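lol ok so funny story. i was supposed to be doing the assay writeup but got distracted and ended up predicting the structure for this chain instead. priorities right. anyway since i did it might as well share w the group, maybe its usefull for someone
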Amino acid sequence: MKISNKLYFASVALFLVLISSGCNKKLQEHPYTVFTVDYFKSPTGLQSAVNALYSGMRFNYGPEGAVGITCDGTDEWTYADQPRTGAGGTADYLTLGNYTLDASNGAILTPWNRNYSNINLANAVVDFAPNVNMDTTLRNTIVAQARFFRGLYYLLLVEQFGAVPLDLGSGDLHFNSKPYQGFNRLPTSDLLVKNYQAMINDFTYATQYLPDQRPANAFVLSKAAAYLMLARTYIFRGYSAAKQSSDFQNAYNAAMEVINNQAKYGTSLLQNFADVNKQGNEYNPEILYSVERIPGDNNDNEVGNPSGIGGGKGVDASNDFTPDYTTVKAPTASSSTSPCATRTQLYGRPIRRFCPTAWLYNIAFADKYNDSRYDGSFRTVWLASQSGGGFNVGDTAIVLAYTNAMADSMNAIPKSYRVIAPREFYIIGGTTIQNIYPSLSKYEDGKKQQANDQGGRPFPVAKLSEMYLLAAEAAFQIGNVNQAVTLLNVIRERAAYRPGLSASDLATRVAAMDIDASQVTLDFILDERTRELCGESLRWPDLAMRGKLIERVKLYNPDGAAKIQPFHSLRPIPQSQLNATADNNRAQYQNPGY
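and the output, tada:
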């Protein structure tokens, strides 16, 4: 949704009046407008609040903290050399990745400090909307959006911290306008049951009252996105202490509703995987919901300092996965030429926060021939960004070979550009010979105003491809393995496609990608989620919520394996929250182990 800043700041200003005495002082000094709770009791106020809920999601998808807590320290990603050396204030990502984090870690504050205010705002919409004089259909749609967001804001908290308060001071799921220093988190076992039921109720309501389809050129919420979140929540609950016997069946039903009625919901899989995240194609029918941004428009994206790092609403993900392509020299040993030394908007700032694990490169993406998803997810070729040393702008400068043998073969022929073997990749080869590795290309943004800027593209949150994966997982869990195979093969067969293949070549690759029932396990489904959704701010909760985090980190991430413990499947409650709680026994609210 292309959000009006006027509406956004109006609703946020109201909220700040209600909760912050510091902001009260500022507004008294500059009394342009006076807001009260009554603003919510009008159609304009309700819509302003919903617009703010859309905008608030920018904190959860794209900024560095949001990327760190969802990617770092998994089987897919470890910390790269900036956190490893402590450069640029990166200790939070080092401790996330090696599991020495504590309650003062700044990255975990990303959802904690941002989501409760938006939950309270959603509560206001739900509380006040029934008494607002307005068209009934419009009211239901506004409430459905607020309830979708309330469910998602809660889901983003629960998947990191476990049970979290539903009562913010005025009762469960009700708007609170008064200062409150309580922390209604106990008992956590009972609260987790209530958390899941609240999220399921909200997403169910959204499936009933959101529009069937989103607009072709905007990410206004629709039923398909709600069904995906409903299916995901049922699956997460199915693995949790709050599980119910019908969870996986309900997840399957929710996902199949969209899969079986794609024309109704205005969605479909693209033919070419690489096109799903391609810049300029953000509004394709495979993407059900993205957090809206406008490329190159820092003002409307609410990015005050576009070259800053973390803490805002920009897409730091456009730089976080980027290696130091600027220091790679031409192939001769004596060469001082670095043809990519000039940073570009597309390649971004080589900020080197997160890099692939050896497992991701060598195992998850072992088949780089039949499966197009490696090439569709990673940059492996850089072109010269400056002239000199025998290079012109646009010449091939760096190539990351698929295999060591391929690199050796290519390097046997004299050439101006550098071919780098996997054994030379940073971390993957266990050496720092070259501080370069495959760079996640899904968030590259060639429309940034400057190379060092944060990105400004919409950030995908819900895709039809994940709906197939969720349906397959649910089918597997209820014992319908053949249906799981059918659903997984839809995704895998799509991945065999590359532009320009002959019909016979494509058929051969499709056959190579097909699986049978003997191959389907939860681990295989998790591997398939990596191939389809790598780097999309899902992996840490994917593993933690399914009870697979500890096992897979120990197996596949040497940086995290040594110190990860079972209690690390939950994050610590931030120390700042405990300090602010009016209870001398604050330790009782902390997650075990911290």
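Residues 1-32 have pLDDT under 50 and may be disordered. The first strand starts at residue 77 and ends at 79.
back to the writeup now i swear
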